[in-house]
Amino acid sequence: MVLNDFLGRPLVIFVEFQMSSIRAAVAIGLLLAFAFLTHAPATAQVRGVDVEAFVGEPYGVAKIVVRFAPNTMDKDVLRFWIEERNDRVHYPTYGNPPLRRLVRNLFDLRPEQATAYFLFKGGQPFSVRLFAGQPIDVQVRPRFAPLRRARLLDEWWQQMRAGAGLLDSSDTDYPQQIDNYLASLLSLRLNLPWRDRPQGPLANLFGDSSMDRTLGPFLGTEEQRITIERDIILGKYVNASPASLPLPPHQPSPALAFPPFPGAEPNVEPMAMYVPRECFYVRTGSFGNFIWLRKLIDRTGGDMRNLIAVRGLDYQTDARMQTRLGLRDSKLSAVLGPLVVSDVALIGLDSFVREGASMGLVFEARNSFLFATEMNSQRQTIQEETPSATLEEVTIGDKTVTLLSTPDHRVRSFYVANGDYHLVTSSRKLVERFLEVHGTSDALGATAEFKNTRWYLPLDRQDTIFAYMSDAFFENHATPQYRIETMRRLRATAEIELWRIAELVAKREGQPSGSIRELVQGGYLPPGFGTLPDGSQTVREGDRFVNTRRGSRGYFVPAADVEIESITPLEAQEYNQFLTEFRSSTGRVNPIAFGLRRFASGTPTPEGEIPIERVEIDAFITPFTQSNSWISQLGAPDGWRLQPLPGDLVSAELVLGDRHWFAGLRDLNPLPSPWQGANGSEPQSLFAYLLKFLFGSPGEYIVGYLGATPAVPAGPLFTPWGNSPQFGPPDAGGYAQGGPVWRRDYGDYSMFSFDRGLIEQISPQVLLVPAERPAQGRLHIGDPRQTAVAELLDLLGLMQASRTSDANTRFLDVLSRQLAVPDDQAIAIAEELLDAKMVCTLGGQYEPNPDAFGHPTWRTSLSAQSALPDYRFPPLQWFRGLDLDFAIVGDVLSAHATVDLQLIDEPGVPPLPAEIPPEVIPALIRGAEELPPPPDRSRGGKGDGTQTPPSQRNSGGGKSGGRQNH
User: Fold this and answer.
1) Virtual CA dihedral for 262, 263, 269, 273, nearest 10 degrees?
2) Which of 383, 652, 727, 865 could be stapled to 736 by a disulfide with Cβ–Cβ 3.0 to 4.6 Å?
């Protein structure tokens, strides 16, 4: 029901494989593959043991180096383990950096020594047993040497920072909560420098770390959550002044200005006149479209990112929102829905789904009496089935509203009707605004901004999904009330997590852990922990931790419903800093709108296979501020496109300056398999395979071309591999060679490829023809199934899935090894800490896997090697083709895409219950909403009845004929 991807989170684009070419991506993927798919244990022969140990407070530090005979040591560092009977050893780490492990696995190189670092308590001698494929007993005799202790302590800390121990934050899939806590706690205890964490995804995207600080809380990034937890442990809020300052007034951005419409204003749907202007708005247009959207969400588990790569943590956002709103799918809903409901929209004041969002559903009823009867019946049933739930009537404005709720806010559902428009929401504030705005300028549909959007995406498009995030929606998050409450609720969530982690660490160290007071006295939590500036406290209720003002974690009272009476000087300072950075670096987030329509693709499919749908998406950002440097390099929108070349799997075009660039990828040549030799049975030499792949000619694998018109001047050509070949004089056919690259100038065109024969083949076919829409960039991707590219994507997807699954097992390892959590409790405690269900992205189950000596380790029941034959990269299961173009004209950024997909089977006409009167059957059949055929575009133009935006009139289209290459 709730789509994070419609809200702020799609603004976060984090490209995990930042590689310069497909060849590099494959190479890294294969390196990683062998790093975990190969393993050959051996029995180590010990040649000697060196020990250093120095006493100190609160910990001593020790280092053990075990030397082995050549080629006898097990190359898998995860088999290292230190054991000590009296529980004096803490926070071990092992001196075998990940890159070394990778190289050793690749080339079967075995280390000749193992290094273990650890902290210990006390000054008396003690014995440890180091397991490195076999038990090795070591006597540790601590000495007093402050300078050498400081040096060794720094060495231990650097090793931890290098990622070989607990503090590995280089893996974005790995949950950071425990590592972050321990790093903060140990740096504080031992007076060690805190290391700078890697910049977050917003900094990677925008090149500015301030973006994480300004937009991080709004988007709910993991980096922001971890930063707040670190600040709490390091004492940022210790001795903070009380909340004694009034909430400052909001300083709004200047109002957006829009040119007058050339003629009549566009039509606006009545539903938009009931939506507050500061809400996001996702309208489905019909109940049938709403059902399609629900099926899509069910397919993705409530997170659209699962269409690209299954995530290792399932936050169950859809199920949470259904529970909170008190909505259930009845057996007759799919049948009766089209009769009772004509339109549905998801609206909200924020997207804080993980904490508790201010969201709701607006239903436009065909029959308000029947709809209200069904809603009240559902709510009564939930109240009767939920022991702690109450159903009461409250007055908001001049309306009677029903409130279904539980004390912990897991259920918090307001229901109110305003004419034929019915709102079900978690937020009292949203109810107030819903009742206030109808017939006023505060309604979303009454704003000039929304009417401007409806000019670009008019009602007669009949979108399956129309989504809009207004300027007021983004501006609302910059108000003092919303920003400060956002930070407080993130801090409340962080305190709940930290309390549980501190409890586990204290138990592991044998210290009292039954209350916040004991944890503060033991140094596991900072003074003042547990109380927020508004006086609310973090408390334990049974087996749950809650904030006394906001409720249970994951079900907080919506931010819009929390009144802020006063703030602290620190909060005032942080808000002023935020506002300064927001106005200077971001200014404002431009309004965003997109419309999605579904059509039958017309592509035949085998019997029993899900039919292919065609989804058309039009997106607009207006007004759009051209602040990015790359945008300034674009030329004017070009009314031409490359004529499709038979055999192209991927083709792309970009207008840079006055030159039209184009490129195509036919496929990859068959990739040699690292698991299979030339005869199909024996594995080839890994070393020889990697050398061939890494250092061979890229033309051996890539079958594609690059071209431009007008022709590129003679001279060196930059390539993604850093080469800059200088082409020699052309031969009689017009071909010139520079390194592995061939060039041919053919009429007004220049073409480049690793394959001379390919240039010869396509040169006569290259032709620019009139385009449907002027654009500066275009992309076409065909159906990648049964291609070498698909094999590559499957391999890289498997690498990522294995990495994600491995991240979860490492988190369980930390619980078991470092915090001594029993195996039968580890998964439950991990999911409690993360407030999410752990998912094995390979399709297996997480299970304990003690080593030969009984030491706890975790694994997944389905390894990457086992999953390899059947694994498919998730998009390849539904993606069947894409065409996309974009243009920036004046202050409007527009994009148009068509996607062919096999995603959701058509529901068809649902079975009719016996009690449905026969006379309503025709209406039910019409409600099935069969997909229309795709629009007729054979005559050019939009072909769909939409109005041409003013900014696109006379902007470069309308040329006839083609730009010939000869």
Assistant:
1) 80
2) 727
Q: How far is it, in rounded angstroms, from Cα 439 to Cα 437?
A: 6
DSSP string for residues in 925-957: HHHT-PPPPPP--TTSS--SSPPPPGGGTTSS-
Q: Among candidates 277, 281, 624, 286, which has minimal Cα distance to 468?
A: 281
Which pLDDT value is given to residue 359? 93
Contact by Cβ (8 Å): 182, 167: yes
- Enter the tokens of residue 610: 């899900």
Nearest to 838 by CA among 812, 817, 864, 814: 812
Side-chain half-sphere exposure of 18, counting CA atoms within 13 A = 7
Q: Which secondary structure element, helix H or strand E, spans residue 501, and what is its range?
A: helix 480-508
CA distance 523 to 529: 11
Q: Encoding tokens for residue 367?
A: 């029959």
Q: Do residues 595 and 465 lie in contact, with contact meaning Cβ atoms separated by under 8 Å?
A: yes
Per-residue burial over 388-422, b = 16 or more CB atoms within 10 Å of its CB, e = otherwise: ebebeeeebeeeebbbbbbeebbbbbbbbbbebbb
The rounded distance, in Å, linking the Cα atoms of 632 and 455 is: 27
Higher pLDDT, 528 or 108: 528
In Å, how far are 519, 777, 821 from 544, measured between CA atoms?
A: 17, 52, 18
Residue 249, helix vs strand vs coil: coil
- The two three-digit tokens of residue 479, written as one number: 């108000």
Q: Are 349 and 558 in contact (CB under 8 A)?
A: yes
pLDDT at 415: 97
pLDDT in tens, 534-574: 999 999 988 889 999 999 888 999 999 999 999 999 999 99
**Which residue's entry shows tokens 């999911």?**
831
96: its two tokens: 């075998």
pLDDT of residue 482: 92
Read off the pLDDT of residues 137-147 as tens digits, 9 standing for 90 and up.
Answer: 999 999 999 99
Among candidate residues 25, 20, 35, 15, the one with its CA nearest the CA of residue 802: 35
Q: What separation in angstroms does the CA of 213 have from each of 158, 487, 572, 575, 591?
A: 27, 11, 15, 11, 21
Query: What rounded mean pLDDT belongs to the chain?
Result: 78
**Separation between Cα atoms, residue 631 and residue 475, nearest integer Å:** 25
The answer on pLDDT for 115 being more than 60 is yes
Indicate the pLDDT class of residue 212, thresholds 50, 70 and 90.
low
